[in-house]
Specification:
alpha/beta; 5 strands; DNA-directed DNA polymerase; DNA_pol3_clamp-load_cplx_C; 5-stranded parallel sheet
């Protein structure tokens, strides 16, 4: 590539730059798909006659890349999407290295690598050439998922409050594609500011959302609401295991911030929490003494073992833990 064709590496998956070659690297298929969709839109905006070809690097045959990259009869621009680079054949590695030294004009080659070290020579060559690399990494922390939700609403020029973001991540945050779909549904089906009531209307029946409500009420010392929410959940068949897990997560967060000093942003970085999680945990921490937290942690450890088979009545075990926690907190 010529120096003028060398964009900076580390590209944003929401705005992939146009370049002769682009690397999508990482295991999160949803982010890779969104990045590729955005790149297709950009190229089609330039020319509706864009020709798209897909290649599987794992089953690739020598010479195919050069053939599909060669000019067509009417010289339409081309997008070549090569997937499965983490299982690439030796033929693909050789052809891709050769192609990188002399990319075809009016062709965009996207290389999708799921992670790992397979094809390290190619990865090193792409880095040396300044090829833009889009990291497609799984969003594992609630802080990352919360930022994702906020960005989805900002792109749609809509607002969602912090409590609603928290509730949505708690309800559907396990899978990024589901979380994105939930954002789009709320954007399409609501008007104005999206609040936690709107999230509860659409997703309140999910196990995660139910656990979220029980845990919030228990940590705040609101025993009537915590127990009524819990009994409704258990009566409708909710497994007690995620309920205990949600309570444990909440108690751990309160314990982390109980004696901590510093800004929400600083503590969030130090403790691996989002700033709004720090703020919420601090509010709950006001209801607790160190001794009360120790008792709650002990009760949850016992409940966790009981709901996983150590007790004959796991439903009673989780209700006892919720009662103990909710009545130990100071109103």
């Amino acid at each position: 590539m010529t120096p003028a064709a060398r964009p900076s590496a580390g590209a944003d998956w929401r705005d992939v730059p146009l370049a002769p070659v682009v690397l999508l690297f990482g295991p999160e298929e949803f982010i890779a798909s969104r990045a590729l969709d955005g790149l297709r839109r950009k190229l089609r905006d330039q020319n509706q006659e864009l020709e798209i070809t897909t290649l599987d690097a794992a089953t690739y045959s020598a010479g195919t890349l050069g053939m599909v990259a060669s000019p067509s009869l009417f010289s339409e621009p081309k997008l070549i999407e090569a997937s499965n680079l983490s299982s690439m054949s030796d033929d693909f590695l050789a052809d891709a290295l050769a192609y990188l030294s002399d990319p075809a004009p009016d062709v965009t080659l996207t290389l999708m690598h799921g992670g790992g070290t397979r094809g390290k020579r190619l990865l090193d060559a792409l880095k040396a050439a300044g090829v833009p690399r889009v990291d497609c990494l799984a969003l594992k922390k609630d802080q990352e998922k919360s930022a994702f939700v906020t960005a989805e609403f900002q792109l749609a020029r809509r607002r969602i409050d912090a409590q609603a973001v928290r509730a949505l991540v708690a309800a559907v945050g396990a899978n990024l594609s589901e979380l994105a779909a939930a954002c789009q549904q709320l954007i399409a089906d609501t008007t104005g500011m999206v609040d936690s009531d709107a999230v509860d209307k659409y997703y309140g029946g999910r196990v995660e959302a139910t656990a979220f409500r029980v845990a919030d009420a228990a940590l705040a010392g609101n025993a009537p609401v915590a127990l009524s929410s819990l009994r409704h959940a258990l009566a409708t068949g909710v497994d007690p295991v995620p309920l205990v897990a949600a309570l444990a997560m909440k108690v751990r967060q309160v314990a982390k911030v109980h004696s901590a000093r510093g800004s929400s942003a600083q503590l969030g970085r130090d403790l691996g929490m989002a700033p709004w999680q720090v703020d919420a945990a601090r509010r709950d921490a006001g209801h607790w003494t160190a001794e009360g937290l120790a008792a709650a942690i002990q009760a949850l450890a016992e409940a966790d073992a009981q709901v996983k088979g150590a007790a004959r009545d796991p439903l009673y075990a989780v209700e006892r833990a919720v009662t103990l926690i909710a009545t130990s907190a100071r109103r």
